[in-house]
Amino acid sequence: MTTYNKTLLLLASKLGLEDEEKVLGKAAELERLLQTKTIAGNNMTDTSKIVICLDLATNICGVDLDLKTAIKYSGLKQPTYINSRKIVENLLEISSNKLTISALCLTLQCSKVQVLAEEILEEFKKKSKMEVDLSLPQYVCMAVYQACRINKVKISKSKMIEKSRLKPTQWAKLDTDWSKFVDDNFSSVKKKRGRRVKDNVENGNDDSEKMDTDACNNEVSTEPQIEPYEDWKRRMLEEAYKELKELQQSEKNQNMTPRRSPRKTPQKNSPCKTPNKVNGVRLLFPKDL
């Protein structure tokens, strides 16, 4: 009879799997393989690892397992358990839908950064001080994210975090570390890209100027000659000044025309009469006074 780990047998009995010999054997095999792997940035306990191995073994062997009970005995919360299970699947290479750079670039419609993302991931593996599994979704997502940052390709950060299966705080910490790593090791790529964009802009301007010059040389002028701007400006100002002067003169002439006030002419029944005149001189008071 095969001897198993006591913790494995105890948890298997709690999950109702003590009589499933195939499941126990597969779970023990997965546990031994998992001990040879390094899980970076994860605080799974030995108990949670065994529960996850039993969960994966039941899935492989086609045996039913109550997920709520498994999460309960693992000591993890449901989101953490699902994330840890996915990590173990990738480490043991038993996941059928493993995330790759090419698949992620295709999903996010940024295939032009695929080569650079693969280079970043490979360089990180070389410079890393500890052994890491680069097939984990967080590393794949971060490599693509950094490649998009260098090439200034806009992608959905929320979708990237969702694909990485990390919490926003974990993603922010990983982003800080990787941004520093990429800036230190791929600065030449950023400079080269900036220079290439500048050259393309200058070449585009030169080509457009050349095309305009050729078009001007080859075109047969059928339109009348266009008046130079300075001459046109001078002519328009002179006309405007002339019209303004005529308008001012017209207003001045209108103001000089005397207008008779209606109040100066006494009314027919007004008590005020026209003063008497003596020898052509108008008297203000009657002569008899």
Features of the shown structure:
mainly alpha; DNA binding; two-stranded antiparallel sheet; 289 residues; Cyclin A, domain 1; 12 helices; DNA replication; single chain; ORC6_cyclin-like_2nd
Structural write-up:
With 289 residues, the chain is mainly α. Among the domains are: 6-91, Cyclin-like (Cyclin A, domain 1); 101-188, Cyclin A, domain 1 (Orthogonal Bundle), CATH 1.10.472. It contains twelve helices and two strands. The protein has helices at residues 6-14, 21-35, 46-61, 67-74, 78-91, 101-108, 114-127, 137-151, 157-164, 168-185, 187-218, 229-256; strands at residues 277-278, 281-282. Strands 1-2 form a two-stranded antiparallel ribbon. Helix 2 crosses helix 3 (46-61). The N and C termini lie far apart (161 Å). Keywords: DNA replication, DNA-binding, Nucleus. Residues 192-221, 243-289 are annotated as: Disordered. InterPro entries: ORC6_cyclin-like_2nd, ORC6_cyclin_first, ORC6_met/pln. Residues 11-95 form the ORC6 first cyclin-like domain.
